[in-house]
């Protein structure tokens, strides 16, 4: 999970609280969440371009990509890298519906409803150092995740009882119990942790602790160099398994953390592709015929964790009160430029896992009821004062000030405390040192493992310490079943229970987009912003 790097303009920030008060004074009726695509953002190409209409690929050239954050490492056990897919291909890839499909692997099947899984690899694949891509390499990589409790993909190895190299191109996984979602673990984004990113065992053993800055995969481009906070260069891998690809000669990745600078760079052509476009950028690019926008809201979104182990949010009255205190029209106008898809559940309408019942049960904007709940809490001896945790950027502070004003209107004395992003993530959030804190998850194609991580007792991203045994049972069943209807029912029921308990305060769907110059073709991406580069090319 990642803290959102806010993207609104300074002018909007300066007017936020005044606009919120003006809207509140005029009155605001509750707004139901609508299906994606109604907010003025271009959602016509969420996962990439139309290859059939883009013409015949032209080989050659260098693609310059702007990233919203510096990469952390290319080591699959560490993750936090949106561009690792240039160097690595994944064993499986999710399609637009969130279903794992073969990629470096030819197939992954189960003969016994999920207790045994047989992974068959493509023949004639080599790593970029010339060593063979085989079953032993897969087992070596999965074992690195399994034996390191701190590894980003360690969670996904928990069901594994043993792994056998059945032959040079076949791995058989024996699980402790049936896990219908096991193939998803091999198709997740690199930055979320996965089991499908396979690095060269020879390179890992050679580089040791330095491997993360000297990666070797079986993807379309091989690593050249990395100048921290400046650029990462990769070049075409001539022995790539997809013959004739990649089309590009090279890619240069540049970290551009300032959103306005990054957006201006793609507008003026200093970069070809911006993989860090958020609400305001997507709004602008959607209206610009000289840019191409690739965006889809997906699941989960932006929200506030409510710490259920600290007062006042250990009391359900206060969780209800803060939920009813937020005016959705003011929220959208001041924080999302009226282009946000506001959220009330972990899934958006149109998703097969979406529960209309859960959305309808989510508390609507009702300041009078919120005031009553706060008064009841105070009368029982509670202190309704709240500290809101935010980042240090101007727009994060503006968001905190908006929340502060909304809560004050119902009798909650709120203060805004800010920290740099590193401290906010590690000390405040992961350390549980908060009452309420702004966060973002997704967008994602598949609800596993994100729902499990966020809402299961002991989940690695369950920072508010939420626990409901009935939710745990439903999420466990969703992971284990191979029946899509049963899985959807599990997630729908879990949403209903979660929305009754209110462990999080929903804000809006996450906005992460790729924004490209018109001559960039063959874009392929996950909703989480990670791209696949083998098919990307540039026209003249």
Automatic annotation (TrEMBL):
Region described as Disordered: 28-61
InterPro entries: Peptide/Ni-bd, SBP_5, SBP_5_dom
Keywords noted in UniProt: Signal
Keyword Signal in annotation: yes
PROSITE patterns: PROKAR_LIPOPROTEIN
Signal peptide: 1-24
Domain Solute-binding protein family: 100-461
Gene3D superfamilies tied to this protein: Dipeptide-binding Protein, Domain 1, Dipeptide-binding Protein, Domain 3, Periplasmic binding protein-like II
Name the record gives this protein: ABC transporter substrate-binding protein
Source organism: Pseudonocardia benzenivorans
């Amino acid at each position: 999970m990642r803290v959102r790097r806010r993207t609104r303009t300074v002018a909007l920030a300066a007017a936020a609280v005044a606009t919120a008060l003006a809207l509140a004074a005029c009155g605001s009726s509750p707004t139901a969440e609508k299906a994606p695509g109604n907010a003025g953002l271009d959602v016509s190409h969420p996962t990439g371009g139309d290859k059939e209409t883009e013409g015949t690929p032209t080989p050659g050239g260098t693609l310059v990509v702007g990233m919203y954050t510096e990469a952390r490492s290319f080591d699959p056990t560490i993750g936090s890298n949106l561009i690792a897919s240039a160097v690595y291909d994944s064993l499986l890839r999710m399609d637009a519906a969130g279903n794992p499909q073969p990629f470096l692997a030819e197939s992954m099947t189960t003969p016994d409803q999920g207790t045994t899984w047989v992974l068959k690899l493509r023949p004639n694949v080599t790593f970029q150092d010339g060593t063979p891509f085989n079953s032993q390499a897969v087992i070596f990589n999965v074992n690195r995740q399994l034996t390191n409790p701190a590894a980003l993909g360690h969670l996904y190895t928990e069901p594994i009882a043993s792994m056998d190299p059945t032959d040079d191109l076949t791995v058989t996984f024996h699980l402790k119990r049936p896990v219908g979602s096991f193939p998803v673990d091999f198709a997740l984004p690199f930055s979320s942790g996965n089991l499908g990113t396979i690095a060269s065992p020879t390179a890992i053993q050679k580089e040791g602790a330095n491997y993360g800055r000297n990666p070797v995969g079986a993807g379309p481009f091989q690593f050249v160099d990395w100048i921290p906070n400046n650029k990462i260069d990769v070049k075409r891998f001539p022995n790539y398994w997809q013959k004739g690809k990649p089309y590009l000669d090279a890619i240069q990745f540049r970290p551009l953390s300032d959103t306005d600078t990054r957006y201006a760079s793609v507008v003026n052509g200093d970069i070809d592709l911006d993989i860090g476009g958020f609400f305001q950028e997507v709004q602008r690019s959607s209206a610009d015929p000289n840019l191409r926008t690739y965006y889809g809201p997906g699941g989960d979104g932006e929200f506030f964790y409510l710490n259920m182990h600290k007062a006042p949010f250990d009391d359900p009255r206060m969780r209800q009160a803060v939920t009813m205190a937020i005016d959705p029209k003011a929220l959208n106008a001041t924080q999302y430029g009226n282009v946000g898809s506001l959220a009330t559940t972990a899934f958006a309408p149109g998703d097969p896992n979406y529960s209309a019942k859960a959305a309808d049960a989510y508390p609507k904007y009702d300041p009078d009821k919120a005031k009553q709940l706060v008064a009841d809490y105070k009368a029982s001896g509670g202190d309704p004062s709240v500290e809101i945790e935010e980042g240090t950027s101007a727009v994060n502070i503006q968001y905190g000030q908006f929340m502060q004003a909304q809560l004050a209107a119902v009798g909650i004395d709120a203060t805004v405390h800010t920290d740099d992003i590193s401290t906010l993530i590690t000390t405040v959030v992961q350390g549980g040192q908060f009452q309420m804190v702004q966060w973002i998850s997704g967008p994602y194609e598949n609800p596993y493992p994100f729902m499990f991580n966020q809402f299961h007792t002991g989940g690695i991203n369950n920072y508010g310490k939420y626990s409901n045994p009935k939710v745990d049972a439903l999420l466990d069943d969703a992971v284990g079943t191979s029946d899509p209807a049963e899985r959807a029912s599990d997630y729908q029921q879990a949403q209903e229970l979660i929305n009754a308990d209110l462990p999080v305060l929903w804000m809006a769907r996450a906005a992460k987009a790729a924004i490209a110059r018109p001559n960039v073709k063959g874009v392929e991406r996950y909703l989480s912003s990670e791209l696949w580069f083998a098919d990307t090319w540039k026209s003249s």
